[in-house]
# Entry
Amino acid sequence: MSASPVCPGTGVRLVPRTYKVRPVTDADREQYARFERSATERGDADEAEYYRSVIPKWETEVGQEREALVCAVCGRTSLSPTRAGTARRHQRWDSETPSWDRVYELRKEINALNEELDRVLVQLDAQSEA
# Structure
C-alpha cells in the first residue's frame, strides 16, 4: 500500500453509481495496443486477442449508461466487495473535483442515513423496554 491515507469508506457498503461510457481516446488506443504487443511478445495469443477486441467493443458502447458499485466515500470503482457487500481496505481515490452538487448529494445521503439510524434506534429502545 502507498503512503496515501486509508479511505474512510473502507468497511462501508459499496453503493451503485450510474455513469456513461466515455469515448475512446488516442491514449486508450495506444495503451491497449501496448498491452496487445506485450501479450504477443509473451506468446499469449488469447490475451492478445482480448486486448485487440476491447477498443471495437468499447466504441459500440460509447454513450450507454452503466451502473457500477463504488466506494460510498471516494467513488473508487475498482473494488470488489467483501461477502457482506462492504468496501475492502483501499486508499482514497478522489476522481471528482469538489462541487456544490457533490455537497448537496452528500448532505442528502447523510440525512437519509440519519433517518434510518433514528428508526433503528427507536426499534432497539422498544425491544430493550419490552
